[in-house]
Amino acid sequence: MSLTTSSTPQGFSAFITNLGIRDTTDDFVVIKSAVPCVADGVFTQSLFAGPSVTISRDNLKDSQAQAIVVISKNANVANGAVGIADAQEVLQLVAAETGIAAHDIVIASTGVIGRRYPIEKIRAGLSGFGKKLTAVDFDAAARGIMTTDTVPKLATRQIGNVNLVGIAKGVGMIEPNMATLLTFFFTDAAIEANSLRSIFRSTIDKTFNCLSVDTDTSTSDSAVILANGLAGEVPLEDFANALQEVAHELVLKIAKDAEGATKIIEVTVDSAINYAQAKKVAKAIVNSPLVKTAIYGADPNWGRVAMAIGKCETEQEINSEKVVIRFDNVRVYPDTLSPENLEQLRQIMSQDKVHIHVSLNIGEAAATVWGCDLSEGYIEINGKYST
Amino acid sequence: MSLTTSSTPQGFSAFITNLGIRDTTDDFVVIKSAVPCVADGVFTQSLFAGPSVTISRDNLKDSQAQAIVVISKNANVANGAVGIADAQEVLQLVAAETGIAAHDIVIASTGVIGRRYPIEKIRAGLSGFGKKLTAVDFDAAARGIMTTDTVPKLATRQIGNVNLVGIAKGVGMIEPNMATLLTFFFTDAAIEANSLRSIFRSTIDKTFNCLSVDTDTSTSDSAVILANGLAGEVPLEDFANALQEVAHELVLKIAKDAEGATKIIEVTVDSAINYAQAKKVAKAIVNSPLVKTAIYGADPNWGRVAMAIGKCETEQEINSEKVVIRFDNVRVYPDTLSPENLEQLRQIMSQDKVHIHVSLNIGEAAATVWGCDLSEGYIEINGKYST
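ok -> structure tokens follow
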């Protein structure tokens, strides 16, 4: 079955507005399904996870949900008992307006940590919205969940009659651990809960969990999928492929829009003893500030990749004499580079997407991870974000 | 016994010169003792450790050495068999000139990775230097081992008749693991090898191994101490205290001169279950790019400290409800901050040294670590270093 990028899934409606939480851009998004959905979610492992995460985790235990609420520009994290009460009040307000039980609503929140919601503004803004729900403009929804993002992130696929849409936000504090920032998938596929869960988790693991912008794990990471069944069944493998494609597309969009990023870095490590080893080495490279700045400056200082491999402590020891390092098709280690090679390397490091390929030559496992370079822009944005 | 900062230890002489390895600044330092020294060294755990590290580790196995050679501006790492042969040739040249056996010489090398020494220049530059050794100018020695350092790092203490000098270099690729960049200590104390080893390793563990600039572990980290005994014995506790003070002073000098740094960050985590937990949490905070940029911008975004604690996976789980976070004497969590508190916080974050204090309130252990903020300067320096 061929995959095409296409229209929106049946049966979803939305209310997207500005509540004035931080500025005048949209900061509140509700997307509801006409019928109950099979649903799954994975969330941050942060010990400081906020009430949005803990409540949503509970609400998804029965693999059922019918609406998603997102408040952006304020994470409602580290606010103690008042933060929990605020989150519950938002759910009750949405439940009252939509007629959906509060335990069938997923809530997510993103923005500054340690600041209370302007709850009066939220009460005022949500009053009567239940009558204003319209067909979902997913582009507007993707915009409504942004914080310092500069572009909305949206990806779609069609599998037969079934439609799949994914949206995501995230530009910093990105080293997802079991989930990512905020990403939501909507489909009208009919799919059984266990199949959805297994496909969704494996997809997130190989896509969002392989992305790192700055090694900082957000307190609010949430990835949720809703499948309302209105378009009927499709082969599971086709659905899984489409989901993988949509997630991969969103990951690249996040890496590209990462705070201050000018280039995407893709690192593949192969012939490792196991997947954990391959991923650990790949992450060490993609997260190294010295590798990131060298790529930003297109400085052919490939020795920093050797340095990053060298600092990895893995259970099965890496033998530096067996390691081969390539940038695209240029082998830089253990060879001696000619001046022509160095110039070639500089060219590769000037591309929008820089691919580093490391072979450990001690096993069969491989992993690919994504990240971005580190520029003055990251400092500029993060030295001044909260104020 | 009182500690004073003072003169140089007896019995050491030096040759410091420019061999033209990268530019016209000094790049070659030999310091030799008139008599054999009790010696110890700790080195990088990097899997890509170069021949300087592997040879020096071997040469110090008998706890004896009589000279240290440092080549700066080229790390001689990831150069394969030719790199090993080059390092051995340097040792042979120094042995021939000084009359010290090659296995009693420690070698260290720092600079770009993956580029061969200009061995002809080294041969020419070392010819006849044995006749040019003079009293050690430790300030010049500290300059001679610099790469992108902007100031030499030197600290001294006198313990009775005994003199102790430490020098260090390092501004980036700093997350020492069992050792640090390059740091050398010289003393005329008479001290038994086992005592020296135990005091030296415990000192390095609590000072250099608690320093992180950018989470990147160098392939060349080396910390070495030579004690030639010419000034006789002093109480071990006094010697240990002096060594601790000298090492701590060097660590602060490195943090202050770190690439692009404008402020030192000191993080203390106390009431943890054990030292490992305290250190892990403290390192997560001091290494967080978002905490570092907030401090650079003096942005009172303390929630990022909560985020950094939240991402720590430790064996004994941290309870976010028991955590207390302070900047100097201002408690920021779990309290609600007044506008006055926020202004106070902004003042604290504008100081040259910012102290973050976290209490986990689940045990008795504590750790203090040091780092620095992250500015455009780091990007500027590291986007352009090798070329």
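The radius of gyration of chain A is 22 Å.
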